[in-house]
């Protein structure tokens, strides 16, 4: 393979341009054009065709971008613009050469942006940074495994290590990884899900007994009404738009609940269809409720209240009495609570008008089959868990669960984040799983719950976790409170990152650090017994195989299962009854064990080879059975709370631009929101701009408002006048993590409240930086003795006064 030198210009924020905003529609011809351009430029025609045409096909690989499911009938181009970017980014032939590591010190690399880092090309050899040095140097694989194995063996307790997972990892790798961690002796298995859909898992687990979607792929087109809450599908799940369009075309309705008028929720031009290419496209949202950040709980309660009121007017016609009687508990308590709900509080919390809420309620009551979908706009709220419980309440009242075209549908982010959980990546797997795991491999797994993502950072900060191993991801950039996270990483003895591309977590390290480069999902995985495939689970519980389609960028790369097997051999060889060497050669052996341990995966090797794979059983969806203590779905009473902002402040959400994949920045544009060549922007409603005495286009410093004595600030951000809800602002993740205190988490799920950051603004005396300057922007005042913020007293959460005292 010829090596191509990357030519990457560093970001120059002073070139930032703001265009007409926001765009009125999504996708269409520009979508296809934009999707093919980067691939052709980087990879050439042959590699592009081998990847893009195989993507999401039955004999191809699962798109490494989002977890949106594949239809049964696949089209030639079963991908979207952002999937194409993800594949191009991974399958690029550009690699990081050995001399890169002597040319660049860590200090030097830290001054570069995430964009620049990712564009340096694929990581192709293991590298090691010894204690006290500022450079990585290439090492052999054997050396690398020995260094990590010896370190792990030297710890006083297995709980001094934590094993992070990001959601691109395959089922096979995830299963081996959790086995390795537990055989080593710890449940410290933090994952990206802790920062993502953890709130969904908790809310659904407690109410319907399973933390997964209760719908199938076909249900979207079948629904009478889909309520899309806190989600931006045009950027983050673009292929979902095709299903929203299908729903509309068969007479269904869509309601969007969002503080931002996201382009894709207005109008969609399907690039696969003639009407999408030459016509005006399909109008998506029939109703758009421009809610205040965090107002969703109040809105859902108000709609449920109207359902009860309508039932009272026409008894026997609105509630699904048969369903409620047979399958649910808690109806009377919920009614009693909701009928006292104070409407003034609802209007204040939501920022909506009564007629808008009435209209949504009328649509809900008129529809027989309703789906509610949601993503980060809900899970990353302080009351995220309670809000999702309110969605379940609303759905249950009219029996919208366990029938075609209806149900609860959290839309997962990472392409296999759901599968990783199924495989045991969770710091608190239940006893049945642990029993089966112990029995299968002849050992006693640790039973004490481990640390999640936020807790792992606390323990690293406090010197209790000394080694961090990460299977993918970019934890230091993805987690809240960047300053604390970076200090926590630096406080460890060793950080080990299994990765495909360079990122910030390789540069902010423990005293010693290693990068172990792995093959990506697009690449052919040849092992001693032949070419291997892996398996993944999408957001509607469909499990299917994924086959790489291009030659790996380097012969030297190992697969994730191989790396984990070798790490295990270097650390705990012979400790449990596991054929680590065999696992690496033949993934069927791993799947044999999965079949014995993981519920629903019996006969895995056969089922995964069926045409299109198989769908995991799901009690609520398949048979209206609920794995709760009473066997019934639980209607819950949740005291209404919403975020109150002090005068002179706004609530800021951190979200994704169109040209990024989480912490990976593909480019510096946010096409649908009209932003070009920069990321340091803050979107504010024009009336708030005026009220705060600011000006459109002005540079401001954004200060986090928390009374824990720590200064959290983003400097030189451009104010962009934008039609967001009043009192609310928006800025991009991951940069905004500087502003989120570690202790600000969703109640019940411990997910950082990335969508609810109280901020104030000051005119900036700084000029727009032309390079990434996280260090310069994140300042800890000298007054703070050890540089760590103490646990905050938190954002004031206002109790709703009259609600069910
Ligand atoms: N191209 C691309 N695809 C991706 C990703 C990516 O970064 N890039 N990331 C993947 C991952 S891991 C995930 S989890 C998903 C994330 O998918 P999304 O959840 O769509 O991601 P965000 O950009 O965080 O967008 C949050 C949306 O919620 C809205 N919102 C924010 N706060 C509130 C609120 O209080 N109430 C309501 N009703 N709405 C609110 C925002 O305005 C925004 O539209 O996407 C996945 N897919
Ligand atoms: N403020 C704020 N913070 C957030 C969020 C937010 O909305 N706002 N969203 C949260 C969410 S939803 C999530 S999911 C997390 C994301 O947290 P993470 O999953 O930790 O972060 P990613 O940016 O997805 O990880 C990207 C890195 O994964 C590696 N990688 C990519 N593909 C592979 C592969 O196939 N194998 C291996 N081993 N490595 C690979 C690459 O090196 C790449 O740099 O961030 C969370 N943080
Ligand atoms: Mo996510």
From TrEMBL:
Residues 122-501 form the Molybdopterin oxidoreductase domain. Residues 764-805 are annotated as: Disordered. GO terms for cellular component: membrane. Keywords: 4Fe-4S, Iron, Iron-sulfur, Metal-binding, Molybdenum, Oxidoreductase. It comes from Arthrobacter agilis. Its cofactor is [4Fe-4S] cluster; Mo-bis(molybdopterin guanine dinucleotide). Residues 650-756 form the Molybdopterin dinucleotide-binding domain. Belongs to the prokaryotic molybdopterin-containing oxidoreductase family. It comes from the Bacteria. GO terms for molecular function: 4 iron, 4 sulfur cluster binding; formate dehydrogenase (NAD+) activity; molybdenum ion binding; molybdopterin cofactor binding. The keyword Magnesium does not apply. InterPro entries: Asp_de-COase-like_dom_sf (IPR009010), MopB_CT_YdeP (IPR037951), MoPterin_dinucl-bd_dom (IPR006657), Mopterin_OxRdtase (IPR006656), Mopterin_OxRdtse_a_bac (IPR010046), Prok_molybdopt-oxidoreductase (IPR050123), YdeP_MopB (IPR041953). This is FdhF/YdeP family oxidoreductase. Pfam families: Molybdopterin, Molydop_binding.
């Amino acid at each position: 393979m010829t090596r191509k030198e990357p030519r990457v210009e560093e970001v120059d924020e002073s070139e930032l341009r703001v265009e007409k905003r926001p765009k009125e529609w999504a996708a269409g011809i520009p979508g296809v054009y934009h999707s093919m351009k980067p691939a052709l430029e980087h990879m050439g025609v042959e590699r592009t065709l081998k990847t893009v045409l195989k993507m999401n096909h039955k004999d191809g690989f699962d798109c490494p971008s989002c977890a949106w499911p594949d239809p049964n009938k696949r089209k030639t181009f079963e991908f979207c613009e952002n999937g194409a970017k993800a594949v191009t980014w991974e399958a690029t032939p550009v690699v990081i050469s050995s001399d890169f590591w002597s040319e660049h010190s860590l200090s030097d690399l830290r001054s570069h942006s995430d964009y620049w880092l990712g564009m340096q090309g694929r990581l192709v050899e293991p590298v090691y940074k010894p204690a006290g040095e500022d450079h990585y140097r290439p090492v052999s694989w054997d050396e690398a495994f020995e260094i990590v194995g010896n370190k792990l063996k030297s710890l006083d307790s297995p709980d001094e290590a934590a094993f992070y997972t990001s959601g691109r990892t395959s089922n096979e790798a995830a299963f081996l990884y959790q086995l390795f961690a537990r055989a080593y002796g710890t449940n410290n298995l933090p994952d990206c899900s802790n920062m993502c859909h953890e709130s969904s898992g908790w809310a659904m687990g407690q109410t319907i007994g399973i933390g997964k979607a209760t719908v199938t792929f076909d249900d979207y087109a079948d629904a009478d009404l889909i309520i899309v809450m806190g989600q931006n599908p045009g950027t983050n799940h673009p292929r979902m738009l095709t299903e929203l369009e299908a729903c509309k075309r068969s007479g269904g309705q869509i309601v969007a609940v969002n503080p931002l008028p996201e382009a894709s929720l207005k109008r969609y031009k399907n690039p696969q269809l003639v009407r999408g290419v030459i016509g005006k496209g399909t109008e998506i949202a029939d109703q758009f409720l421009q809610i205040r950040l965090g107002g969703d709980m109040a809105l859902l309660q108000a709609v449920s209240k109207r359902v009860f009121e309508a039932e009272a007017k026409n008894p026997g016609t609105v509630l699904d009495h048969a369903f409620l009687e047979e399958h649910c508990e808690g109806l009377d308590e919920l009614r009693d609570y909701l009928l006292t709900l104070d409407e003034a509080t609802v209007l204040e919390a939501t920022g909506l008008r009564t007629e808008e809420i009435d209209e949504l309620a009328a649509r809900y009551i008129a529809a027989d089959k309703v789906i509610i979908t949601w993503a980060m706009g809900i899970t990353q709220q302080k009351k995220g868990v309670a809000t999702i419980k309110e969605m379940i309440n609303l759905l249950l009242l009219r029996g919208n669960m366990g029938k075609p075209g209806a149900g609860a549908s959290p839309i997962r982010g990472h392409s296999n984040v759901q599968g990783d959980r199924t495989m045991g990546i969770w710091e608190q797997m239940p006893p049945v799983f642990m029993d089966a795991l112990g029995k299968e491999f002849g050992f006693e797994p640790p039973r004490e719950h481990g640390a999640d993502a936020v807790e792992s950072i606390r323990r690293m900060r406090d010197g209790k976790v000394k080694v961090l191993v990460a299977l993918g991801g970019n934890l230091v950039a993805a987690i809240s409170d960047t300053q604390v996270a970076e200090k926590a990483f630096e406080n460890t003895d060793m950080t080990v990152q299994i990765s495909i591309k360079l990122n910030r977590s390789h540069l902010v390290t423990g005293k010693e650090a290693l990068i172990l480069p792995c093959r990506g999902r697009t690449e052919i995985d040849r092992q001693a017994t032949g070419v291997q495939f892996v398996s993944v689970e999408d957001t509607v519980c469909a499990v299917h195989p994924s086959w790489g389609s291009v030659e790996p960028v380097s012969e030297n790369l190992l697969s994730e299962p191989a790396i984990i097997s070798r790490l295990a051999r270097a650390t705990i060889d012979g400790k449990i009854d596991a054929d680590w060497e065999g696992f690496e050669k033949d993934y069927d052996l791993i799947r044999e064990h999965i079949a014995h341990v993981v519920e629903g995966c019996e006969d895995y090797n056969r089922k995964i080879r069926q045409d299109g794979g198989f769908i995991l059983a799901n009690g609520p969806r398949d048979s209206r059975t609920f794995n709760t203590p009473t066997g019934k779905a639980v209607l819950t009473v949740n005291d209404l709370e919403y975020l109150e902002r002090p005068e002179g402040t706004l609530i800021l959400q951190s979200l994704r631009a169109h040209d990024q994949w989480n912490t990976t920045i593909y480019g510096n544009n946010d096409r649908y929101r009209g932003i070009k060549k920069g990321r340091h922007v803050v979107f504010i409603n024009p009336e708030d701009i005026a009220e705060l005495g600011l000006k459109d286009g002005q540079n401001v410093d954004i200060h986090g408002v928390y009374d824990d004595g720590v200064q959290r600030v983003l400097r030189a951000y451009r104010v962009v006048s934008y039609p967001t809800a009043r009192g609310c602002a928006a800025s991009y993740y991951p940069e905004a993590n500087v502003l989120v205190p570690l202790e600000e988490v969703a109640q019940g799920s411990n997910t950082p409240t990335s969508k609810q950051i109280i901020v104030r603004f000051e005119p900036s005396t700084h000029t727009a930086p032309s390079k990434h300057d996280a260090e310069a922007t994140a300042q800890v005042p000298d007054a703070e003795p050890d540089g760590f913020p103490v646990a905050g007293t938190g954002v004031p959460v206002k109790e709703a006064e009259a609600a069910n005292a």
